[in-house]
User: What shape does this take?
Amino acid sequence: MRYILSSCKNVSGEISVPGDKSISQRAFILNSIANGRAHVGNICVGDDKASVLRCLRSLGVRIVEHSNCRITNSQECFEVFGKGRFGMSKPVDMIFAGNSGTAMRLIVGLLAGSPFYSEITGDDSLVKRPMGRIMKPLSLMGAEILSQNGNDLPPLLINGKSLQGIEYKMPISSAQVKSSLMIAALHSEGKSEITQPSFSRDHTERMMLSMGADIVQDGLKIIVNPSDLTSKNITVPGDISSAAFWMVLGCIHPSSEIKIANIGINSTRLGIIDVLKSMNANLILENEREINNEPIADVIVKSSDLENIEISGDLVPRIIDELPVLALAACFAKGQTVVKDAEELKFKESDRISATVEGLSNLGADIIATEDGFIINGGKKLRGGNCFSYGDHRIAMTMAIAGIMAEGTTTIIDAEAVDVSYPMFWHTLKIICDSLDLRKNE
Ligand code: S3P
Assistant: This one.
């Protein structure tokens, strides 16, 4: 499917975005292994939600959908009937994690210590993503995990075992790896100490703590003792990674004012806001508050005169999913923007270094790829062109926002990728972009 669009004169409105994908997935998984039952509301919509639900249901977890949920104050919610630690059932078929790296890595952490044999795979993108990063530490804990093809890629074959706690220094900063190990550690004998090289998103730590897990955070080290969780009702905050598209559009469009309500502003995810502010963005947070141990706020963004920036080091994990759309912002900033230390971008839903550079270059941007990021010279006008999604939701949405800013018509090819995290994206685009000419071509 293709979407064809062109520029618009004004961008304005008050919008909300889907619930945070990372928090939604953890809320489903952790409530499945908890004791009791809980409602999870304002979840992320889209294929990744469906993937994690399918995985958990194939392990025998009962999850029931309700509308007009008063417990979570949301239109739609899911009630998860926890099966307790070690309560999962042996799946009948191969588990299918779709496009979701988070679902696969976290659920393998759970399967590693579950006493049965299981297999898990994913779609064309997920079967190309490295799993050695979880296979190695989980094996050190005593798990038996093999790749069907003898490499470190899915499908994975898991022979669940009694696990031992681990002392592990993670070589890369990855919340998926950390969370996978933390879930395995709950199912192990003895204490585990997991040390990360820099801070990555800490939703698992926050949620486990609020569910009564015996965990301690000591700087970059997380100490996990095997423990039971108690089910917890969760209202998920809006996804800052989805809001990032509107923040960037608000900054780079010459006539804009957008308010995005109820966005999660956890400091481990705040890189996009910190970076845009350092680039001189006209962006403020209002109404800061907390729900379920996660901070949230409304974000107001207006047309801005952006300046260049250098992004590297510990900042990278805090902005990892927003770097493609940040590259677009840099096209409209004064001077040269450099993104370094972001090699991890190559292992996402697509190789996001080459996908970002190719897509924006097709629209006339001055951007080059480096080994671990990109370099952008701002100020070059964009013109319409053809952009592929490479099957990656964040690339498709970045190119759509670029199309709004380009002169002429832009076509987003394989635009259905957007459905992974944000099926309502096109609808919201149409609402906030004044008299937008947006056409869908099957
Ligand atoms: C995620 C962590 C990040 C991020 C992904 C979601 C999570 O990946 O890119 O979209 O929910 O834990 P890594 O932790 O592997 O960097």
Summary: Residues 240-252 form the longest helix (13 residues). The radius of gyration is 21 Å.
